[in-house]
Amino acid sequence: MQLRSKLDCKSRKNYSMKTRIQLAIASLIYLTIGCKSDSNYEAKNMLTKSLVSTYIKSIDSQGMIQISQSSYGPVNRDCLTEILNKYKFEIPFEETFQAQETDTIAWSKEFFSNDSVKILSSRERSSISRDIAPFDGETLDKTFYVISKPIFSKDQNFAILKKYFFCGGRCGQGSVLVYKKKGNGWVLQEDICPIVS
């Protein structure tokens, strides 16, 4: 009886030690993955800031540039297929397309280094959309841009940005921009899939 009691005690200690080791390993794996995804998130944010900065600089504006807080809808299937194939993005089409449809990014000032950028809330955007008459040149402060969350190629050397310029009840235009990374910046490769209202 006493021998059995000693064996039970010893096996409980072994079990307890095994459990502790397994928990320690699981914790290390969790922390490693968490840190890696944080660094991926930061790297993607830096790429996004750089790309958006390039786009903002391309806008010929004498005053405040208004950007909608909510992002633009998905690039249509045909356009996205053409771009992904032409520029060898090497990312899964369906996953990329569906991710755009559920995109809930809210642009904030942190993405824009330009001081002349104003982020419009949904309420401000709706107010402008409702109040604006057809574009007459006098309503430049009632215009705004809507841009999508960027889609980056697997190697992050190419990016897709969908943009739309709203300038009135029957005035607006947009397209899909394809950029190529060059040094620390981005160079516009193509402006395709036009949208006109």
From TrEMBL:
<protein>
    <recommendedName>
        <fullName>Lipoprotein</fullName>
    </recommendedName>
</protein>
